[in-house]
Structure formats: C-alpha cells, structure tokens
Amino acid sequence: MNPRLPQLDREQQVLHRIERARQRAARIREDRITLAHGSGGKASRTLVEAVFLAAFGNPLLEPLEDGAECTVDGARLAFTTDSYVVSPLFFPGGDIGDLAVNGTVNDLAVTGARPLHLSASFILEEGFEVEALTRIAASMRAAADAAGVQIVTGDTKVVQRGKADGCYITTAGVGLLDRPVRLGVVHARPGDAILVSGPIGEHGVTIMLARGELDIHAELASDTAPVHGLVAHLLDRTTGVRAMRDATRGGVATILNEIATAAGVGVVVDEDAIPVRTEVRGACELLGIDPLYVACEGRIVVVVDGAEADTALAALREHPLGEAAAIVGRVTDDQPGMVLLNTGFGGTRVVDLLVGDPLPRIC
C-alpha cells in the first residue's frame, strides 16, 4: 500500500471543496461593507458579482478585464476608470498623483491599447493644504507627460473636515486599440506560459512601511511606473500574447486566480521562479504576508503561448521596466479553476483568493 494515498485523498478533498465553493452563486453575507470588500480578493469579487454585475451586467462589462473594449464608428477603443485612496499621500517613489495617472495608463496598456486621454476628479477635505494639492497636480502633469497622455477633463468636490482623508482621486482613461489582437484572461489555454515583468510586492510593502506604524526599516520605493512602453515592446516582438494584467490590489495571486477561473484552466506556479527583492521578502515575513498577495504598481502578468515564452521573456528583459522579468508558471488542463504553487520546500499548496485585507489603503 502506498503510504501517500491517504494524504493525496485529503488533498483532493480540499481541492473539491474549494471548487464547489467557487461555483456557488455570489452572495454577500455581510450587512455592511467592510475593508475586505476593497482588498481585491474574495470579498471584492463577491461584491462585484453580487451587486454590480447583477445591476449593470452587459457584454462589455462581463469579461471584467482592466478595461472595456468599445467600438465607435469602426474604431476600437479601450475605456477604464479607477479611484485612489492611498495613505499616506506621499511615499518613497511617488505619490497619489503619479499613482493615479500610471494606474489608469497601465489599465489601458494591458488591454493592448495606446493610451490617449485621461479625466481626473478630486474629492478634497476641508482644510487640505493647497501646497500639497499643488504638488499632487504637478506630479500628475509630469506622469502624464512621461506617458504621452493628456488630462483633458475633470471635476472637484470639497467635503467637510473629517469626511475624507485629505485627497481622493478618480481617473478614467481612453486608448486606441490599433493592433489586430484581442487580449483577455479567458483566452488562456493549457501549454501557455505565465510571466511577470519584474520583482513583485514593492509598492504594497513601501506603503505599509511609509505609514511608520511598524518598527521595520528597508531601502524600498514604490514601483509605480507607466507600463505602456513595455507592453508595446512586447507586442512588437511576439504574436503569442494571450492576456496581460497589472498586478495591483490582491497582487499576482489574484491575477493567477482570475486566469484560472475565467479560462477554466489550471495554473501551476514555481515559488523559486518568482522574483522578489530580499527587502520585500524580509518585510513580508515579519508581517506574516505572502508577497504573492502584495500590490505592485509597475508590474504586469503576461500569459503567452508556451512556444513563444522565451521570445516574450527576451522582449521583456530588453526594456528597462522588464530587466528582471521571469517565467513563473504554466497553464495546465489539470484542476481547472485552481492555482497551485510548487514551494521551495518541494511541496505543493493552493494559492486561493485573499479572504481579508492585510494591507488596506495601498492604492
């Protein structure tokens, strides 16, 4: 008798329970919104599916990509929107202003679009310093110039003192889909490779340390950056790209689960292949957080035809933002809907969606 059979049976039972839970219709059990509903994990997904998809469901929204594809008089456009509530407003490597611009540019870029125009709306708290707002606006202008986009419209509201946290920003963006490709995680298929464009988790850990609530010191800066140039370079070099996502809230783990769920495939990732800076790994160990769940703001996850994996990797590494890119996993036809991690200790564990919110207000 094989002594591992009972253990394998238990593992299969766990996998089946998780799969059954995922297939149930989305239903919010809480009576009130919690911070977990903004984490990018299970609670966020349930909120989106049970409330917003139920109310707004349509073919453009239902893929739940980072941007929607719209066609206007024969022109293919990408459209996206995002809100930024990061705390603190200023942090090593950036601030809420360039974060808002870069985040929206990146959401457009990973659809395959060429970003063109942004809107910017501000919710300001009574008493917020004009000097700080001026710094934020200047940062947004610099980020927009660097990304080759213009902020062409916007809005401003002011709320009473104590009703906000200084400054919140919402940006929306439109870009032109002028390449003959249609990207989306639903296109992932067995045999595909999964790549990340660089070390993960730097933004989320930087924000946490910048709050000064923990006695942890590390030379870290946010990785916030516009990735449209990196994406364009990749798409110029290979026709094998199936999908791209920028790994913000919920980190790379959330993207991997979205790939597995949307395409009905399995995803297997090798822990030792995932690029993580020593400072990020050390801080995460002290905080009890897995770097896979920590937000990035200048990194993309790419699904590419397995035959084109080396070409795609070389293309990413040719660009300054992709110098540390790596092939981290593969798409399989085993355990559809599941993400498995081959650990550095020789075992395997399930990488599920976040349940709580370990790092709130990071973007």
Care to describe what's here?
This protein is of the alpha+beta class and 363 residues long. It folds into two domains: 66-176, 60s Ribosomal Protein L30, Chain: A, CATH 3.30.1330; 185-350, PurM-like C-terminal domain (Phosphoribosyl-aminoimidazole Synthetase, Chain A, domain 2, Alpha-Beta Complex), CATH 3.90.650. 32% of the residues lie in helices and 23% in strands. The protein has helices at residues 5-23, 42-56, 96-109, 130-147, 202-210, 228-237, 251-263, 278-287, 309-317, and strands spanning 68-72, 75-84, 90-91, 94-95, 114-125, 150-159, 167-176, 193-196, 241-246, 266-270, 300-304, 326-332, 339-342, 348-350. The strands form three sheets. The chain has a seven-stranded mixed sheet. It has a five-stranded mixed sheet with strand order 1-2-7-5-6, covered by helices on one side. A two-stranded antiparallel ribbon has the order 3-4. The chain is globular, with a radius of gyration of 20 Å. The protein starts with a helix and ends in a 13-residue tail after the last strand. The model has no long low-confidence stretch (mean pLDDT 91). Residues 189-335 form the PurM-like C-terminal domain.
